[in-house]
Amino acid sequence: MGGQLGPHLHVEGTSVVHRLPAHAKLVGLLLFVLLVVALPRDAHGHRLAMLGVAFAVVAATRVPWRHVLARLVVETPFVVFALVLPFVAVGPTMRVGPVTVSRDGVEAGLALLLTATTSVLMAVAFATTTSSRDLVRGLQRLGVPDRLVQILAFMVRYLGVVGSQAQRMKVARESRAFAPRSVRSWPVVAASAGALFIRSYERGERVHLAMLSRGYTGRMPVTDPLSASASDWARALAPSVLALGTLVVAHTA
Amino acid sequence: MHVPDGFLDAPTSVATAVLAAGGVALALGRARRELDDRTAPLAGLVAVFVFAAQMLNFPVGAGTSGHLLGGTLAAVLVGPWTATLCLTVVLAVQALLFADGGITALGTNITLMGLVGVWSGWLCYVVLRRVLRSAGPAAVPAMAGVAAFLSVPVTALAFTALYAVGGRVPIPFEALVTAMLGWHTLIGVGEGVITLLAVGSIIATRPDLVHGARGLATARPLEIRTGASA
Protein backbone atom coordinates (compact mmCIF):
# COMPACT_ATOMS: atom_id res chain seq x y z
CA MET A 1 0.00 0.00 0.00
CA GLY A 2 1.05 3.59 -0.52
CA GLY A 3 2.17 4.33 -4.05
CA GLN A 4 2.78 7.86 -5.16
CA LEU A 5 -0.76 7.93 -6.50
CA GLY A 6 -2.34 7.31 -3.15
CA PRO A 7 -3.00 3.87 -1.76
CA HIS A 8 -4.28 1.45 -4.35
CA LEU A 9 -7.17 -0.08 -2.56
CA HIS A 10 -7.65 -3.38 -4.34
CA VAL A 11 -6.74 -6.43 -2.25
CA GLU A 12 -6.84 -9.89 -3.81
CA GLY A 13 -9.15 -12.31 -2.07
CA THR A 14 -11.79 -14.98 -2.43
CA SER A 15 -14.48 -13.74 -0.04
CA VAL A 16 -18.17 -13.61 -0.91
CA VAL A 17 -17.84 -9.95 -1.82
CA HIS A 18 -14.78 -10.57 -4.01
CA ARG A 19 -16.64 -13.22 -6.00
CA LEU A 20 -19.68 -11.06 -6.78
CA PRO A 21 -19.74 -9.70 -10.36
CA ALA A 22 -18.67 -6.05 -10.46
CA HIS A 23 -21.85 -4.69 -12.07
CA ALA A 24 -24.10 -6.24 -9.44
CA LYS A 25 -21.84 -4.88 -6.69
CA LEU A 26 -21.89 -1.41 -8.21
CA VAL A 27 -25.69 -1.35 -8.46
CA GLY A 28 -25.94 -2.61 -4.88
CA LEU A 29 -23.52 0.05 -3.63
CA LEU A 30 -25.28 2.89 -5.42
CA LEU A 31 -28.76 1.84 -4.27
CA PHE A 32 -27.67 1.32 -0.69
CA VAL A 33 -25.96 4.69 -0.33
CA LEU A 34 -28.83 6.49 -2.06
CA LEU A 35 -31.32 4.93 0.37
CA VAL A 36 -29.14 5.89 3.36
CA VAL A 37 -28.89 9.47 2.09
CA ALA A 38 -32.68 9.53 1.75
CA LEU A 39 -33.24 8.73 5.45
CA PRO A 40 -35.11 11.49 7.32
CA ARG A 41 -32.94 14.02 9.11
CA ASP A 42 -33.60 12.93 12.69
CA ALA A 43 -33.45 9.16 12.07
CA HIS A 44 -30.11 8.76 13.85
CA GLY A 45 -30.88 5.30 15.20
CA HIS A 46 -31.71 4.06 11.71
CA ARG A 47 -28.52 5.61 10.39
CA LEU A 48 -26.52 3.87 13.10
CA ALA A 49 -28.08 0.57 12.02
CA MET A 50 -26.96 1.24 8.43
CA LEU A 51 -23.46 1.97 9.70
CA GLY A 52 -23.64 -1.49 11.30
CA VAL A 53 -24.62 -2.99 7.93
CA ALA A 54 -21.64 -1.25 6.31
CA PHE A 55 -19.31 -2.66 8.99
CA ALA A 56 -20.77 -6.14 8.38
CA VAL A 57 -20.14 -5.82 4.64
CA VAL A 58 -16.54 -4.73 5.25
CA ALA A 59 -16.10 -7.66 7.63
CA ALA A 60 -17.43 -10.00 4.93
CA THR A 61 -14.66 -8.87 2.55
CA ARG A 62 -12.05 -10.28 5.00
CA VAL A 63 -9.74 -7.39 4.14
CA PRO A 64 -7.49 -6.43 7.08
CA TRP A 65 -9.12 -3.66 9.17
CA ARG A 66 -5.90 -1.68 9.23
CA HIS A 67 -6.17 -1.30 5.46
CA VAL A 68 -9.80 -0.18 5.67
CA LEU A 69 -9.43 2.22 8.57
CA ALA A 70 -6.39 3.91 6.96
CA ARG A 71 -8.69 4.84 4.10
CA LEU A 72 -11.13 6.64 6.37
CA VAL A 73 -8.73 9.63 6.40
CA VAL A 74 -10.42 10.88 3.21
CA GLU A 75 -13.26 11.78 5.52
CA THR A 76 -11.23 14.17 7.69
CA PRO A 77 -12.36 17.49 6.14
CA PHE A 78 -15.98 16.52 6.65
CA VAL A 79 -15.46 15.42 10.22
CA VAL A 80 -14.07 18.91 10.84
CA PHE A 81 -17.07 20.41 9.04
CA ALA A 82 -19.48 18.27 11.06
CA LEU A 83 -17.81 19.40 14.29
CA VAL A 84 -18.07 23.07 13.29
CA LEU A 85 -21.73 22.82 12.25
CA PRO A 86 -23.26 23.12 15.75
CA PHE A 87 -21.54 26.48 16.16
CA VAL A 88 -22.39 28.07 12.82
CA ALA A 89 -25.93 26.84 12.17
CA VAL A 90 -28.90 28.90 13.30
CA GLY A 91 -32.25 27.92 14.78
CA PRO A 92 -33.20 26.77 18.28
CA THR A 93 -30.23 26.42 20.58
CA MET A 94 -29.31 24.01 23.33
CA ARG A 95 -26.68 24.04 26.05
CA VAL A 96 -23.93 21.44 26.13
CA GLY A 97 -21.86 22.08 29.24
CA PRO A 98 -20.57 25.64 29.09
CA VAL A 99 -21.38 26.34 25.45
CA THR A 100 -24.57 27.11 23.56
CA VAL A 101 -24.92 25.29 20.25
CA SER A 102 -27.54 25.08 17.54
CA ARG A 103 -29.80 22.07 17.93
CA ASP A 104 -30.20 21.72 14.14
CA GLY A 105 -26.45 22.00 13.75
CA VAL A 106 -25.86 19.12 16.16
CA GLU A 107 -28.45 16.99 14.40
CA ALA A 108 -27.07 17.75 10.95
CA GLY A 109 -23.48 17.23 12.04
CA LEU A 110 -24.36 13.84 13.49
CA ALA A 111 -26.32 12.87 10.38
CA LEU A 112 -23.45 13.93 8.09
CA LEU A 113 -20.90 12.04 10.15
CA LEU A 114 -22.94 8.82 10.17
CA THR A 115 -23.90 8.98 6.49
CA ALA A 116 -20.41 9.85 5.26
CA THR A 117 -18.79 7.10 7.36
CA THR A 118 -21.33 4.52 6.17
CA SER A 119 -20.78 5.43 2.53
CA VAL A 120 -16.98 5.55 2.79
CA LEU A 121 -17.00 2.08 4.39
CA MET A 122 -19.21 0.72 1.61
CA ALA A 123 -17.09 2.41 -1.05
CA VAL A 124 -13.94 0.91 0.51
CA ALA A 125 -15.62 -2.51 0.53
CA PHE A 126 -16.29 -2.07 -3.20
CA ALA A 127 -12.85 -0.70 -4.04
CA THR A 128 -10.90 -3.33 -2.10
CA THR A 129 -12.77 -6.23 -3.71
CA THR A 130 -12.97 -4.98 -7.31
CA SER A 131 -9.95 -4.95 -9.60
CA SER A 132 -9.72 -2.09 -12.08
CA ARG A 133 -10.29 -4.54 -14.93
CA ASP A 134 -13.50 -5.77 -13.30
CA LEU A 135 -14.62 -2.18 -12.78
CA VAL A 136 -14.22 -1.53 -16.51
CA ARG A 137 -16.11 -4.72 -17.39
CA GLY A 138 -18.82 -3.84 -14.87
CA LEU A 139 -19.35 -0.37 -16.33
CA GLN A 140 -19.45 -1.90 -19.81
CA ARG A 141 -22.08 -4.38 -18.66
CA LEU A 142 -24.19 -1.59 -17.15
CA GLY A 143 -24.37 0.15 -20.52
CA VAL A 144 -22.16 3.16 -19.75
CA PRO A 145 -21.30 4.75 -23.14
CA ASP A 146 -18.43 2.89 -24.78
CA ARG A 147 -16.26 5.98 -25.29
CA LEU A 148 -16.46 6.90 -21.63
CA VAL A 149 -15.61 3.34 -20.58
CA GLN A 150 -12.66 3.34 -22.97
CA ILE A 151 -11.31 6.62 -21.59
CA LEU A 152 -11.66 5.19 -18.09
CA ALA A 153 -9.97 1.96 -19.16
CA PHE A 154 -7.02 3.86 -20.64
CA MET A 155 -6.79 6.03 -17.57
CA VAL A 156 -6.75 3.09 -15.19
CA ARG A 157 -4.26 1.23 -17.37
CA TYR A 158 -1.74 4.08 -17.52
CA LEU A 159 -2.20 5.30 -13.95
CA GLY A 160 0.84 3.37 -12.79
CA VAL A 161 2.97 4.32 -15.80
CA VAL A 162 2.36 8.07 -15.56
CA GLY A 163 2.46 7.83 -11.77
CA SER A 164 5.95 6.38 -11.79
CA GLN A 165 7.00 8.95 -14.36
CA ALA A 166 5.83 11.67 -11.97
CA GLN A 167 7.73 9.90 -9.22
CA ARG A 168 10.93 9.80 -11.30
CA MET A 169 10.57 13.53 -11.97
CA LYS A 170 10.20 14.10 -8.25
CA VAL A 171 13.39 12.11 -7.57
CA ALA A 172 15.16 14.11 -10.30
CA ARG A 173 14.04 17.41 -8.75
CA GLU A 174 15.06 16.37 -5.27
CA SER A 175 18.44 15.02 -6.36
CA ARG A 176 19.11 18.54 -7.64
CA ALA A 177 18.50 19.84 -4.11
CA PHE A 178 14.95 21.04 -4.74
CA ALA A 179 12.86 21.35 -1.62
CA PRO A 180 9.34 22.75 -1.94
CA ARG A 181 9.21 25.17 0.92
CA SER A 182 7.86 28.49 -0.23
CA VAL A 183 6.05 30.26 -3.05
CA ARG A 184 9.40 30.53 -4.83
CA SER A 185 9.18 26.82 -5.65
CA TRP A 186 5.95 27.26 -7.63
CA PRO A 187 7.65 27.76 -11.03
CA VAL A 188 9.44 24.43 -10.59
CA VAL A 189 6.25 22.60 -9.62
CA ALA A 190 4.40 24.18 -12.54
CA ALA A 191 7.16 23.37 -15.02
CA SER A 192 7.02 19.75 -13.81
CA ALA A 193 3.27 19.73 -14.41
CA GLY A 194 3.88 21.12 -17.90
CA ALA A 195 6.52 18.51 -18.69
CA LEU A 196 4.25 15.79 -17.34
CA PHE A 197 1.44 16.98 -19.62
CA ILE A 198 3.65 16.89 -22.70
CA ARG A 199 4.94 13.43 -21.82
CA SER A 200 1.42 12.11 -21.11
CA TYR A 201 0.05 13.58 -24.34
CA GLU A 202 2.89 12.19 -26.42
CA ARG A 203 2.46 8.82 -24.75
CA GLY A 204 -1.22 9.01 -25.72
CA GLU A 205 -0.24 9.59 -29.34
CA ARG A 206 2.16 6.63 -29.27
CA VAL A 207 -0.45 4.41 -27.63
CA HIS A 208 -2.97 5.38 -30.30
CA LEU A 209 -0.52 4.57 -33.12
CA ALA A 210 0.40 1.26 -31.49
CA MET A 211 -3.28 0.40 -31.24
CA LEU A 212 -3.99 1.39 -34.84
CA SER A 213 -1.24 -0.94 -35.98
CA ARG A 214 -2.99 -3.72 -34.07
CA GLY A 215 -6.29 -3.12 -35.81
CA TYR A 216 -8.02 -0.63 -33.45
CA THR A 217 -11.13 0.86 -35.08
CA GLY A 218 -12.32 3.03 -32.22
CA ARG A 219 -14.16 0.22 -30.44
CA MET A 220 -12.98 -2.22 -27.85
CA PRO A 221 -14.22 -5.78 -28.28
CA VAL A 222 -15.95 -7.28 -25.25
CA THR A 223 -14.16 -10.58 -24.80
CA ASP A 224 -15.78 -12.09 -21.73
CA PRO A 225 -18.90 -10.24 -20.60
CA LEU A 226 -19.82 -10.39 -16.91
CA SER A 227 -22.91 -12.27 -15.90
CA ALA A 228 -24.71 -12.45 -12.59
CA SER A 229 -26.99 -15.22 -11.39
CA ALA A 230 -30.10 -14.61 -9.33
CA SER A 231 -28.24 -15.52 -6.14
CA ASP A 232 -25.45 -13.05 -7.05
CA TRP A 233 -28.04 -10.30 -7.36
CA ALA A 234 -29.66 -11.38 -4.11
CA ARG A 235 -26.33 -11.10 -2.28
CA ALA A 236 -25.39 -7.80 -3.94
CA LEU A 237 -28.75 -6.22 -3.17
CA ALA A 238 -29.10 -7.56 0.39
CA PRO A 239 -27.74 -4.37 2.04
CA SER A 240 -30.05 -2.27 -0.15
CA VAL A 241 -33.06 -4.34 0.90
CA LEU A 242 -32.12 -3.75 4.55
CA ALA A 243 -31.75 -0.03 3.80
CA LEU A 244 -35.11 0.07 2.06
CA GLY A 245 -36.75 -1.62 5.03
CA THR A 246 -35.11 0.87 7.39
CA LEU A 247 -36.24 3.78 5.21
CA VAL A 248 -39.84 2.55 5.27
CA VAL A 249 -39.71 2.04 9.06
CA ALA A 250 -38.17 5.49 9.57
CA HIS A 251 -40.89 7.13 7.52
CA THR A 252 -43.78 5.32 9.15
CA ALA A 253 -42.44 5.83 12.67
CA MET B 1 -13.16 19.72 -2.53
CA HIS B 2 -14.97 16.44 -3.07
CA VAL B 3 -18.55 16.47 -1.81
CA PRO B 4 -19.22 13.35 0.31
CA ASP B 5 -22.45 11.37 0.59
CA GLY B 6 -25.05 12.86 2.89
CA PHE B 7 -23.97 16.45 2.33
CA LEU B 8 -26.86 17.22 0.03
CA ASP B 9 -30.26 15.56 0.22
CA ALA B 10 -31.29 12.73 -2.12
CA PRO B 11 -33.40 14.81 -4.60
CA THR B 12 -30.56 17.29 -5.13
CA SER B 13 -28.05 14.45 -5.61
CA VAL B 14 -30.30 12.81 -8.20
CA ALA B 15 -30.98 16.11 -9.97
CA THR B 16 -27.26 16.94 -10.26
CA ALA B 17 -26.61 13.37 -11.47
CA VAL B 18 -29.12 13.90 -14.28
CA LEU B 19 -27.50 17.25 -15.11
CA ALA B 20 -24.05 15.64 -15.11
CA ALA B 21 -25.23 12.77 -17.32
CA GLY B 22 -26.66 15.26 -19.82
CA GLY B 23 -23.45 17.30 -19.86
CA VAL B 24 -21.27 14.23 -20.27
CA ALA B 25 -23.48 12.87 -23.07
CA LEU B 26 -23.13 16.19 -24.90
CA ALA B 27 -19.38 16.20 -24.31
CA LEU B 28 -19.06 12.64 -25.66
CA GLY B 29 -20.41 13.80 -29.01
CA ARG B 30 -18.48 17.04 -29.17
CA ALA B 31 -15.10 15.77 -27.96
CA ARG B 32 -14.79 13.86 -31.22
CA ARG B 33 -14.25 17.18 -33.00
CA GLU B 34 -11.42 18.11 -30.67
CA LEU B 35 -9.48 14.86 -30.89
CA ASP B 36 -11.12 12.83 -33.75
CA ASP B 37 -10.59 9.06 -33.47
CA ARG B 38 -7.75 9.53 -31.06
CA THR B 39 -10.31 10.50 -28.37
CA ALA B 40 -10.15 7.44 -26.17
CA PRO B 41 -6.38 6.88 -25.80
CA LEU B 42 -5.53 10.59 -25.66
CA ALA B 43 -8.35 11.61 -23.33
CA GLY B 44 -7.40 8.66 -21.13
CA LEU B 45 -3.81 9.83 -20.87
CA VAL B 46 -4.90 13.44 -20.28
CA ALA B 47 -7.15 12.13 -17.49
CA VAL B 48 -4.15 10.39 -15.94
CA PHE B 49 -2.29 13.69 -16.21
CA VAL B 50 -5.09 15.56 -14.41
CA PHE B 51 -5.10 12.85 -11.74
CA ALA B 52 -1.32 13.06 -11.31
CA ALA B 53 -1.36 16.88 -11.39
CA GLN B 54 -3.84 16.85 -8.52
CA MET B 55 -1.20 14.93 -6.58
CA LEU B 56 1.41 17.66 -7.12
CA ASN B 57 1.38 19.68 -3.97
CA PHE B 58 2.58 23.24 -3.90
CA PRO B 59 3.52 24.81 -0.58
CA VAL B 60 1.23 27.67 0.44
CA GLY B 61 3.10 28.61 3.58
CA ALA B 62 2.70 27.92 7.28
CA GLY B 63 3.24 24.22 6.65
CA THR B 64 0.14 23.75 4.53
CA SER B 65 0.05 22.98 0.85
CA GLY B 66 -2.55 23.16 -1.88
CA HIS B 67 -3.08 21.14 -4.98
CA LEU B 68 -4.28 21.84 -8.47
CA LEU B 69 -7.91 21.18 -9.45
CA GLY B 70 -6.94 21.31 -13.09
CA GLY B 71 -10.32 22.01 -14.76
CA THR B 72 -9.29 25.20 -16.53
CA LEU B 73 -5.78 23.89 -17.22
CA ALA B 74 -7.26 20.84 -18.97
CA ALA B 75 -9.78 22.99 -20.89
CA VAL B 76 -7.06 25.30 -22.23
CA LEU B 77 -4.76 22.40 -23.09
CA VAL B 78 -7.14 19.95 -24.78
CA GLY B 79 -10.39 21.85 -25.25
CA PRO B 80 -13.43 22.09 -22.95
CA TRP B 81 -15.35 19.03 -24.19
CA THR B 82 -12.43 16.68 -23.75
CA ALA B 83 -11.63 18.34 -20.43
CA THR B 84 -15.19 17.63 -19.24
CA LEU B 85 -14.74 13.95 -20.12
CA CYS B 86 -11.32 13.79 -18.44
CA LEU B 87 -12.56 15.37 -15.20
CA THR B 88 -15.60 13.05 -15.23
CA VAL B 89 -13.42 9.98 -15.54
CA VAL B 90 -10.99 11.23 -12.88
CA LEU B 91 -13.86 11.82 -10.44
CA ALA B 92 -15.40 8.42 -11.22
CA VAL B 93 -12.11 6.62 -10.65
CA GLN B 94 -11.51 8.55 -7.43
CA ALA B 95 -14.96 7.62 -6.16
CA LEU B 96 -14.95 3.97 -7.27
CA LEU B 97 -11.33 2.86 -6.89
CA PHE B 98 -10.10 5.23 -4.17
CA ALA B 99 -13.30 5.81 -2.14
CA ASP B 100 -12.67 9.56 -2.45
CA GLY B 101 -15.86 11.57 -2.93
CA GLY B 102 -19.34 10.17 -2.38
CA ILE B 103 -20.94 7.62 -4.71
CA THR B 104 -24.32 9.35 -4.77
CA ALA B 105 -22.49 12.68 -4.79
CA LEU B 106 -20.60 11.69 -7.96
CA GLY B 107 -23.17 13.55 -10.06
CA THR B 108 -22.76 16.61 -7.85
CA ASN B 109 -18.97 16.43 -8.08
CA ILE B 110 -19.05 16.04 -11.87
CA THR B 111 -21.49 18.94 -12.14
CA LEU B 112 -19.30 21.15 -9.97
CA MET B 113 -15.80 20.30 -11.16
CA GLY B 114 -16.40 18.79 -14.59
CA LEU B 115 -19.09 21.18 -15.81
CA VAL B 116 -18.98 24.41 -13.76
CA GLY B 117 -15.22 24.28 -13.08
CA VAL B 118 -14.22 23.52 -16.66
CA TRP B 119 -16.76 25.72 -18.42
CA SER B 120 -16.54 28.82 -16.24
CA GLY B 121 -12.78 28.78 -16.76
CA TRP B 122 -13.12 28.12 -20.49
CA LEU B 123 -15.76 30.83 -21.08
CA CYS B 124 -13.66 33.33 -19.17
CA TYR B 125 -10.64 32.31 -21.27
CA VAL B 126 -12.59 32.69 -24.53
CA VAL B 127 -13.81 36.18 -23.55
CA LEU B 128 -10.28 37.24 -22.60
CA ARG B 129 -8.89 35.80 -25.84
CA ARG B 130 -11.40 37.77 -27.87
CA VAL B 131 -10.65 41.01 -26.03
CA LEU B 132 -6.87 40.54 -26.12
CA ARG B 133 -6.64 39.02 -29.59
CA SER B 134 -3.90 41.43 -30.61
CA ALA B 135 -1.65 40.32 -27.77
CA GLY B 136 -0.92 37.04 -29.58
CA PRO B 137 0.26 33.76 -28.11
CA ALA B 138 2.43 35.47 -25.50
CA ALA B 139 -0.73 36.34 -23.52
CA VAL B 140 -2.11 32.78 -23.51
CA PRO B 141 -0.56 31.73 -20.16
CA ALA B 142 -1.74 34.92 -18.44
CA MET B 143 -5.26 34.54 -19.83
CA ALA B 144 -5.35 30.89 -18.74
CA GLY B 145 -4.13 31.93 -15.29
CA VAL B 146 -6.84 34.56 -14.85
CA ALA B 147 -9.48 32.12 -16.09
CA ALA B 148 -8.25 29.43 -13.69
CA PHE B 149 -8.29 31.91 -10.82
CA LEU B 150 -11.89 32.93 -11.54
CA SER B 151 -13.14 29.36 -12.05
CA VAL B 152 -12.42 28.40 -8.42
CA PRO B 153 -14.67 30.98 -6.66
CA VAL B 154 -17.33 30.45 -9.36
CA THR B 155 -17.32 26.72 -8.59
CA ALA B 156 -17.51 27.52 -4.87
CA LEU B 157 -20.52 29.77 -5.56
CA ALA B 158 -22.21 26.98 -7.54
CA PHE B 159 -21.65 24.67 -4.60
CA THR B 160 -23.17 27.27 -2.24
CA ALA B 161 -26.22 27.54 -4.51
CA LEU B 162 -26.63 23.74 -4.47
CA TYR B 163 -26.28 23.82 -0.72
CA ALA B 164 -28.99 26.48 -0.44
CA VAL B 165 -31.32 24.17 -2.40
CA GLY B 166 -30.45 20.77 -0.99
CA GLY B 167 -28.33 21.40 2.10
CA ARG B 168 -29.39 19.72 5.29
CA VAL B 169 -28.28 22.36 7.78
CA PRO B 170 -29.70 25.83 8.32
CA ILE B 171 -26.48 27.80 7.93
CA PRO B 172 -27.15 31.49 7.19
CA PHE B 173 -26.70 31.81 3.42
CA GLU B 174 -24.74 35.06 3.50
CA ALA B 175 -22.26 33.68 6.02
CA LEU B 176 -21.72 30.57 3.90
CA VAL B 177 -21.22 32.63 0.73
CA THR B 178 -18.71 34.90 2.48
CA ALA B 179 -16.75 32.00 3.97
CA MET B 180 -16.72 29.95 0.75
CA LEU B 181 -15.82 32.92 -1.45
CA GLY B 182 -13.07 34.15 0.87
CA TRP B 183 -11.46 30.77 1.20
CA HIS B 184 -11.75 29.83 -2.46
CA THR B 185 -10.43 33.15 -3.68
CA LEU B 186 -7.23 32.23 -1.85
CA ILE B 187 -7.23 28.74 -3.35
CA GLY B 188 -7.93 30.34 -6.73
CA VAL B 189 -4.75 32.42 -6.51
CA GLY B 190 -2.68 29.23 -6.25
CA GLU B 191 -4.67 27.57 -9.04
CA GLY B 192 -4.26 30.65 -11.26
CA VAL B 193 -0.51 31.06 -10.73
CA ILE B 194 0.28 27.36 -11.22
CA THR B 195 -1.93 27.24 -14.34
CA LEU B 196 -0.20 30.34 -15.72
CA LEU B 197 3.26 28.88 -15.14
CA ALA B 198 2.36 25.42 -16.43
CA VAL B 199 0.74 26.71 -19.63
CA GLY B 200 3.75 29.01 -20.07
CA SER B 201 6.15 26.09 -19.90
CA ILE B 202 4.09 24.05 -22.40
CA ILE B 203 3.74 26.97 -24.84
CA ALA B 204 7.52 27.36 -24.72
CA THR B 205 8.16 23.78 -25.86
CA ARG B 206 5.07 22.47 -27.68
CA PRO B 207 2.78 25.40 -28.60
CA ASP B 208 0.98 23.12 -31.05
CA LEU B 209 -0.41 21.04 -28.18
CA VAL B 210 -2.22 23.94 -26.50
CA HIS B 211 -5.81 23.84 -27.77
CA GLY B 212 -6.59 27.34 -26.50
CA ALA B 213 -3.69 28.84 -28.47
CA ARG B 214 -4.89 27.52 -31.83
CA GLY B 215 -5.32 30.37 -34.25
CA LEU B 216 -3.18 32.59 -32.07
CA ALA B 217 0.18 30.93 -32.44
CA THR B 218 1.37 31.83 -35.90
CA ALA B 219 2.76 28.76 -37.55
CA ARG B 220 6.34 29.37 -38.49
CA PRO B 221 6.92 28.27 -42.06
CA LEU B 222 9.85 26.01 -42.72
CA GLU B 223 12.86 28.09 -43.54
CA ILE B 224 15.53 26.71 -45.74
CA ARG B 225 18.71 28.57 -45.09
CA THR B 226 21.45 28.31 -47.64
CA GLY B 227 25.06 29.06 -47.06
CA ALA B 228 27.02 28.81 -43.87
CA SER B 229 25.85 31.05 -41.11
CA ALA B 230 28.43 33.16 -39.47
Key structural traits:
heterodimer, A: 253 residues, mainly alpha, 2 domains, two-stranded antiparallel ribbon, 10 helices, flat, B: 230 residues, Arp2/3 complex 21 kDa subunit ARPC3, two-stranded antiparallel sheet, 67% helix, globular, membrane (chain A), ECF_transporter_component (chain A)
Strand ordering within the main sheet of chain A: 1-2
Proportion of residues in extended strands of chain B: under 5%
User: Which residues of chain A sit in consecutive blocks of at least 5 with pLDDT less than 50?
Assistant: 1-7
The string of secondary-structure elements of chain B, in order, is HHEEHHHHH
Please tell me the total number of domains of chain B: 1
Biggest sheet statistics of chain B: 2 strands, antiparallel
Structure at a glance:
The complex is a heterodimer of chains A (253) and B (230). With 253 residues, chain A is mainly alpha-helical.
Helices, strands, pairings?
The complex is a heterodimer of chains A (253) and B (230).
Chain A: H1 16-19, H2 22-37, H3 44-61, H4 65-71, H5 76-88, E1 93-96, E2 99-102, H6 103-129, H7 132-141, H8 146-175, H9 186-212, H10 230-252
Antiparallel strand pairs in A: 1-2
Helix pairs in contact in A: 2-6, 2-7, 2-10, 3-6, 3-10, 5-6, 7-8
Chain B: H1 10-35, H2 39-53, E1 57-61, E2 64-67, H3 71-78, H4 80-97, H5 106-131, H6 140-166, H7 173-205
Antiparallel strand pairs in B: 1-2
Helix pairs in contact in B: 1-4, 1-5, 2-4, 3-4, 3-5, 3-6, 4-5, 5-6, 6-7
Transmembrane segments (chain B): 6-28, 40-60, 72-98, 110-128, 140-165, 177-204
Organism (chain B): Knoellia aerolata DSM 18566
Protein name (chain B): Cobalamin biosynthesis protein CbiM
